[in-house]
Amino acid sequence: MHTLPSLHAFLGIAGVALGMVLLPGPNMVYLVSRSLSQGRRAGLVSLLGVLLGFVGYLVAVTAGIAAVFAAVPVLYTGLKLAGALYLLRLAVHMVRPGGRAVFEARELPPDSPRRLFTMGLLTCLLNPKIALMYLSLLPQFVDPTRGHVGEQSLLLGLTQIAVAVSVNGAIAVGAAGVAGFLSRRPAWLRLQRRLMGTALAVFAVRLATDRSSAAV
């Protein structure tokens, strides 16, 4: 039996991860603020903390998914429906008027590398939406007929992390230029939110209507 997710699953999770990481959130706001106020190195040290937070959430969530699916397969349906509702909620927040636009850097006092790392980690860990994101997205791309659900979830989650860390790292390095570019183009941000909101709504419908089983 196959163990790896399909190429379609890898490309799908990478595409969704790219769209979501380009939307300003707590991690990006913190990284950009640190990069603008303290330099690129500070932003990258903070990113290492964010990376550890991603990995911690992924390990916990995938272990939980595997255990729950194996013990009580019927909960898979409830999990998918909850994930679909969460994605729809994100979609509504993105497309409604007055949604968050450009991230704004704040003037912050200099921090030591240890504190930068710790604050990056806490910024990630204290955002429960990351765990919900994994719970919402991973089941959509996992195919129980291809092998162990937990292993597939872990591989797909690592793909999401790779995309998120790469993009956040690039933004941290080029924070000043990116902030200036986005602040001068509010129409581009509105278009981005609408496109991503539509994509999330489509994924939510697919997730809610998927009738696949979680049995391994």
SSE string, helix = H, strand = E?
HHHHHHHHH
Number of helices: 9
SS strand fraction? under 5%
Helix content: over 70%
- What's the rounded overall pLDDT mean? 76
* Poorly predicted tracts of residues: 100-105
Strand element count:
0
Task: Give an account of the 3D structure.
The chain is an all-alpha fold and 216 residues long. It has helices at residues 7-21, 26-38, 40-71, 75-95, 113-125, 129-141, 149-173, 175-183, 186-209. α1 (7-21) packs parallel to α7 (149-173), α2 runs antiparallel to α5 and α3 runs antiparallel to α7 (149-173). It is globular and about 50 Å long.
What structural keywords apply?
globular; mainly alpha; 0% strand; 9 helices; 216 residues
Produce the secondary structure layout:
Blueprint: H1 7-21, H2 26-38, H3 40-71, H4 75-95, H5 113-125, H6 129-141, H7 149-173, H8 175-183, H9 186-209
